[in-house]
């Protein structure tokens, strides 16, 4: 799955109507609704939208015939394997009726073209490791994490004999990281795993 790196816009005219799509990354329903409100021009006849954040998705036809705008926008998001994305497609009516099929193609096509032009980044699932190690092993563990560029280690407290580390690492590197920690600490460090939010 992918999300967008930054906001993107795309505009086209279809049978004298002007369609403007704005797409952007969002991490919550509140963020999605703020994005939609901020990028819905007041002078447009319709500001139709959709967003997907994991299993949560919403769409709105904003006065267009039911199912002709919001749903095709959502299908454009899903069709490009995107997540954590909101899209608004605004329409300024040009005097020519498009019909239900024409509206679906116009809204879905404008959203799809906007998303295709947008810069993407993969959504990476992270795991957290809670590591308890001796003071002497901390520097070796931190040095070993250099082989995992996306890993982040934070000091999370101390014990009488050592330090507590919280390490965030991509799930795909979890086994290798645990093996490295076990090796450099000669099996003395204790490691507990947990799931972190995807990034």
Which structural traits does this protein have?
199 residues, ribonucleoside triphosphate phosphatase activity, Ribosomal_Su5_D2-typ_SF, 5 helices, Ribosomal Protein S5, domain 2
Task: Describe the overall structure.
There is one protein chain. The chain has 5 helices and 11 strands. It folds into 2 domains: 2-122, Impact, N-terminal domain (Ribosomal Protein S5, domain 2, 2-Layer Sandwich); 126-195, Alpha-Beta Plaits. Helix content is 30%, strand content 37%. The model has no long low-confidence stretch (mean pLDDT 94). Strands 2-3-6-4-5 form a 5-stranded antiparallel beta sheet, sandwiched between helices. It has a 4-stranded antiparallel beta sheet with strand order 9-10-8-11. Helix 2 (70-79) runs parallel beside helix 3. By secondary structure, the protein is an alpha+beta fold. One of its GO terms (molecular function) is guanyl ribonucleotide binding.
The low-confidence runs, each spanning 5 or more residues with pLDDT under 50, are none
Which oligomeric state applies? Answer: single chain
Relevant CATH superfamily of the largest domain: Impact, N-terminal domain
CATH fold category name of the largest domain? Ribosomal Protein S5, domain 2
Helix content: 25-40%
**Largest sheet data:** 5 strands, antiparallel
- The CATH class of the largest domain, by name, is Alpha Beta
Mean pLDDT: 94
What is the distance, rounded to the nearest whole angstrom, between the alpha carbons of the first and last residues?
Answer: 11 Å
The helix-and-strand class reads alpha+beta
Tally the beta strands.
11
CATH architecture of the largest domain: 2-Layer Sandwich
What's the domain count? 2
Strand content: 35-45%
Number of helical regions: 5
Shape: rod-shaped
Q: What is the spatial order of strands in the main beta sheet?
A: 2-3-6-4-5
Radius of gyration: 24 Å
Q: SSE order, as H and E?
A: EEEHEEHEHEEHEEHE
């Amino acid at each position: 799955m992918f999300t967008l790196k930054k906001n993107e816009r795309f505009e086209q005219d279809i049978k004298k109507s002007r369609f403007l799509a704005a797409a952007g990354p969002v991490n919550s329903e509140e963020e999605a609704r703020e994005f939609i409100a901020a990028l819905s021009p007041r002078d447009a006849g319709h500001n139709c939208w959709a967003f997907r954040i994991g299993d949560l998705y919403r769409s709105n036809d904003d006065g267009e015939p039911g199912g002709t705008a919001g749903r095709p926008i959502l299908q454009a998001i899903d069709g490009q394997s995107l997540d954590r994305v909101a899209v608004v497609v605004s329409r300024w009516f040009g005097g020519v009726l498009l019909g239900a099929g024409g509206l679906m193609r116009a809204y879905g096509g404008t959203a799809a073209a906007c998303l295709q032009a947008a810069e993407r980044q993969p959504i990476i699932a992270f795991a957290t490791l809670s590591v308890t190690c001796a003071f002497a092993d901390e520097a070796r563990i931190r040095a070993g994490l250099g082989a995992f560029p996306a890993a982040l280690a934070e000091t999370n407290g101390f014990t009488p004999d050592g330090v507590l580390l919280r390490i965030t690492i991509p799930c795909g590197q979890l086994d290798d990281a645990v093996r490295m920690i076990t090796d450099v600490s000669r099996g003395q460090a204790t490691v507990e795993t947990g799931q972190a939010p995807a990034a």
